[in-house]
Each structure stands twice: as structure tokens, then as C-alpha cells.
Amino acid sequence: MIYTVTFNPALDYAVYLDTLEMGALNRTKSEELRCGGKGINVSVVLRNLGMETRALGFLAGFTGQCIAFWLEQMSVQSDFIMLPAGMSRINIKLKTGVETEINGQGPDIPPQALDELFAKLDRIGDGDTLVLAGSIPASLPVDIYERILSRLSGRGIRCVVDASGDLLLNVLQYHPFLIKPNQHELSELCGVSLTSGDLAGIKACASQLQEQGARNVLVSLGPDGALLLTEDGKFLHQEAAAGTVRNSVGAGDSMVAGFLTGLHLTGSYREALRMGAAAGAATAFSDHLATRREVEQLLNTL
After folding, report:
1. Residue 253 falls in the annotated catalytic set
2. Does domain 2-6+37-65+75-80+109-299 bear CATH number 3.30.70.1400?
């Protein structure tokens, strides 16, 4: 089973306009509403690819109830903790040729709710995978990812961390199975300026993160594909699929889901990287998260 944790789920409200004029009435061409949050995105794509997954985290208010209903309609198993106050956030995605995002704050998470999450995590066992993805609300301790990986250490659980900055750096001591920074996040983590075409610099930074404890380092490079540093020290590069980018939201999460699916099905890091690239591109080339058919079509081109 692959579990995901989303500390701050959201309803993503995508609004399509020809232009956006500040201080004036603007009318949309179309709108879309879907549940979001990095862990949720991973679970949705895993389910689309036929994998067994369960989404964990926190929900609140009528927006939280909507997210839970949405996941049920998509046949994604979930076991969220409903908070007593507040509401799950609504994130606004303004699409006017360029993407502008306005993300809400989300509800406060009290200590007793966090204890309830720990109890659920304690039931994860040997051979399972746990994906921790995204930022954390201000009401949670800044070391929450560290506390979770420390708690699960030595239990045969594959831990995947998709986060940025200190949130990621501070968990490397617990040897996560996989981390997935993009090029910009990798630059920040290593304190250098990298371009997606600077494979030598990217490899050096990936090696640095592995030396600090990460077992596998997967770097998404946008139009330049993806680079994987495996736990046995091998670098694998995957060219990007051909297509027109329509939506970047969820592409990195889809890459994580595709990678885990490919690894489960084949046991090969090369095939995992290929499926990860296909899944990430399938989401980027559409207005929704990748479906199995879209991933398989792109996989045949890589």
C-alpha cells in the first residue's frame, strides 16, 4: 500500500480568462474545480494507474467535506481527520496565458489531531510506502516531517519526501527512500544557481544530497526531462516527452506517482524513471491529472 499525507489539502479553483484587468470586472471563459494538495495529487494519479493507495491528512468545514466526497467519487481511499474548526483552503489558479496562483492558509491543526495522525501512521508496516508532500500549515511544528520519519525509522517503510528548503534538508538524516526536488528547489538546497541544461551542476548537487542521506534523488527538469541518482550511485537521464504544456499544477506529483508505479511493476529504476516522466508530462499536457491511458500513450514515445 502507498500512503500519502497532505497536511493542507485544498479545493483548487481554476479560472480561465483572456486577460485580467485589476480594479475592473472580469468575466471568465471557463472554470474548473477539483481537490488538490500534493499528497492528494499523488494518490489520485496512483489510483488512475491502478495502484493501491490511501490518502491521509486533515480536513475541515464544508470545503473539507467536498474534498472527501470528491475523492470518494474518484475511488481514492482516504482516512482524513476532520478538524473541529475552520475550513480547508480554496486555492485560486488564474490562467490568462500565464499562471497566477493565490493559495489560502487552511485551518489550525490542534495537538490532539496530530496525535491522531501519528496513531494512523503507526499502523503502516513493512513493505508499505509513505509519501510526505508539500508545505505544512503554520500551526504545526516545523520539525513535523522529521518527527514522522524518526517515528517510522527501522520499520521497513519506504519514505518519499517531496518538499523544499529546510523541510527537506532536515529529514535527510533519516535516509528517505526518495526525494524529488525540481531544478529551482535543487538550486536553493545547494545554494547555487542552476539551469536545467547544466547536467554537471545538477549531478553534483544531487550527489551532495545523497551524501547527506537521501537514498535516491529524482530531479524534475521541465522541458529537459528528469535526472535520477540511484542508491547505487548511477545517474539516469530521461528526455522529456514531446507536447504542449497546458498546466504545470500537479506535474511533479504525477511524476512521483508514475515513478512509484513503474518501480512496483518492473523493479527497474530505468523503467520507473521513464514512467515518472510520462506521468508528469501527461498532467502537464492536459487540464487535469494524468489518466492511465494518457500515461501509456506517452510512455510509448519515450
Report:
1. yes
2. no
